[in-house]
Amino acid sequence: MDRKDEHVSLAKAFHKPKANSFDDVRIIHQSLPNSNYAETSIATTILGKDQSSPFFINAMTGGSEKTGYINQELAILARETGLMLATGSISAALRDPSVAETFTIARKENPNGIILANIGAGSSLENAKRGVDLLQADALQIHLNAPQELVMPEGDREFTNWLSLIEEIVAGLDVPVIVKEVGFGMSRQTIQQLLDVGVTTIDIAGSGGTSFTQIENARRRKREFSYLSDFGISTVQSLLEANEVPGFFDLIASGGIRNSYDIFKSLCFGAKTVGISASILNQLLVNDLDETIELIKQWQQELVSLYTLVGAKSTEDLKKVPLLLSGESKNWCEARGIDYTKYSQR
């Protein structure tokens, strides 16, 4: 089986809504929200572009006939719901032009939408430019996935040039650059390293959703790395870490997003937008495109209600919503010297 098809099959097999760090976060209810549903906007701005919704379809797949069909449906989904769309890693298309159409189908189906190309952190500036040109992309995602590579039987084993290559791409590319994890989260130290080389948009992509160490370990003859299935920093913990970093950058949350409430909580931590992969992919595979479109529209409507519930007229207003932390997220704050009480005192 093609590796990309195997990833999709295993992601579907392992996908099931489960408890994660978002369950550690409670909204402190205020009984007088002073809000009006009809005057509430869930719009956001990211990469210098206005978006009608504060969430998007994050990077997933591409590189085979089956995954090309998935990208086609994702592009239609993005077009019909007004969502930004990121493709999976385009490295396969750069190596083998015969599979390029499994990625370019996204632009064909959604010619006027905002589309992000995706490439690995070990890629050169030249390949980054080729990837952007291939998709006529509005921005580039550079993904960080060291744990996945090390568990992947055929993965990379050398990471010494990642940061310097990212710096070169940020300086030399004509479109915005997002640096994202792939479900292992980010510490404040990592975020600061990225800011120091010029990155201004960061997707912390925490653990709690799809585990690529689990997927890659399932592909091995011997399951040596089963203890890494839950490796990483959770999405809420990563958001807490990000909020401890001084300086300006646009924060994106992703990893384990199950529903509109998880999107809402991420935005309350200061995320500009929220990326969703597995929940959308599973809906698409189990049901169909029309039902997935309806689900996205339902989430958009639910978010207007959630904004109204807390008196937020805009996405920016959500930063004022008081939050109460418990469980592992609270323990993380205590261990890392983060004052979690400031969230409840907003």
The count of DSSP E runs of length 2 or more, i.e. the number of strands, is: 12
Q: By helix and strand content, what is the structural category? A: alpha/beta
Largest sheet: 8 strands, parallel
Strand adjacency order, main sheet: 4-11-10-9-8-7-6-5
Q: What is the level-2 CATH architecture name?
A: Alpha-Beta Barrel
**C-alpha geometry:** globular
CATH class: Alpha Beta
Strand content is 5-15%
Question: What is the mean pLDDT?
Answer: 93
What percent of the residues sit in helical stretches (DSSP H or I)?
40-55%
Number of domains: 1
How do the strands and helices of this protein lay out in sequence?
Elements: H1 3-14, E1 25-27, E2 44-46, E3 49-51, E4 55-57, H2 65-81, E5 85-89, H3 91-95, H4 101-109, E6 115-120, H5 125-135, E7 139-144, H6 146-151, H7 162-172, E8 177-181, H8 188-196, E9 201-203, H9 212-218, H10 235-242, E10 250-254, H11 260-268, E11 273-276, H12 278-286, H13 289-309, E12 323-325, H14 327-336, H15 341-344
Parallel strand pairs: 4-11, 5-6, 6-7, 7-8, 8-9, 9-10, 10-11
Antiparallel strand pairs: 1-12, 2-3
Helix pairs in contact: 2-4, 2-13, 11-13
Family: Belongs to the IPP isomerase type 2 family.
EC number: 5.3.3.2
Keywords: Cytoplasm, Flavoprotein, FMN, Isomerase, Isoprene biosynthesis, Magnesium, Metal-binding, NADP
Explain how this protein is built.
The protein has 346 residues and is of the alpha/beta class. It has a single domain (3-344), classed as Aldolase class I (TIM Barrel), CATH 3.20.20. Helix content is 43%, strand content 14%. The chain is built from 15 helices and 12 strands. An 8-stranded parallel beta sheet has the order 4-11-10-9-8-7-6-5. A two-stranded antiparallel sheet has the order 1-12. Strand 10, helix 11 and strand 11 form a beta-alpha-beta unit. Helix 2 (65-81) packs across helix 13 (289-309) and helix 11 packs across helix 13. The N and C termini lie far apart (52 Å).
